[in-house]
Amino acid sequence: MVYNLGSYVIEINMRTIYIASDHAGFKLKEEMRHFLVGEGYSIADLGPNREAPNDDYPDFIRPVAEHVAREEGAVGVVFGGSGEGEAIAANRVSGVRAVVWYGKNDRIITLSREHNDANILAIGARFVDTEEAKRAIKLWLETPFSHEPRHQRRIDKIDNS
Fold it and tell me: Residue 67 maps to which CATH number?
């Protein structure tokens, strides 16, 4: 499958990582896009394709959440100043489990996947540097859901509420 996203054309041939940002996360999103492509990941960049101080993050984050919710195995990484608004916007879409990460504690990253099967990672770009973000995203992508019955039961309760 090929996506033509304005200035980006991406061929999707494996588990897709959807990315997006607002103006505050734009620079980090661009750096992470290049990093992830270099690591061999299949990326769909849903915008923005330029830094625009007056943009509204829901315009870019909601499409990421919609793709992740409907495409089995798809995940998203979104970037904002704090990541909070991005996670809130993403979590409005049924089937999305977005978490926020501000840096420092990698255990938060692994727990979000192991216990909650998080499918969108929202990163607070004002709180992390490029190297921290690279490490965290790679760790998040490589950490599997535990499939422990107690964790699945809790996710089912969230999804059915």
Answer: 3.40.1400.10
Angle at 70 between CA 13 and CA 144, to 5 degrees: 70
Whether 10 is covered by a domain: the verdict is no
Q: Which of 71, 104, 66, 76 is nearest to 20 (CA)?
A: 76
Indicate which residues carry an active-site annotation.
Answer: 86, 115
Tens digit of each residue's pLDDT (9 = 90 or more) over 106-124: 999 999 999 999 999 999 9
Give me the mean pLDDT over the 45-49 stretch.
95
Element (H, E) at 88: helix 84-91
pLDDT category, 53, cuts 50, 70, 90? confident
Q: Domain of 154?
A: 15-159
Extract the tokens encoding 25.
């996360």
3-state secondary structure of 120: strand
Q: Whole-angstrom Cα distance, residue 47 to residue 30? A: 10
* Edge-to-edge order in the sheet of strand 98-101: 42-45, 16-21, 75-80, 120-124, 98-101
CA–CA distance, 7 with 154 (Å, rounded to integer): 41
Q: Which two tokens stand for residue 155?
A: 């996710």
The predicted model scores a pTM of 0.90
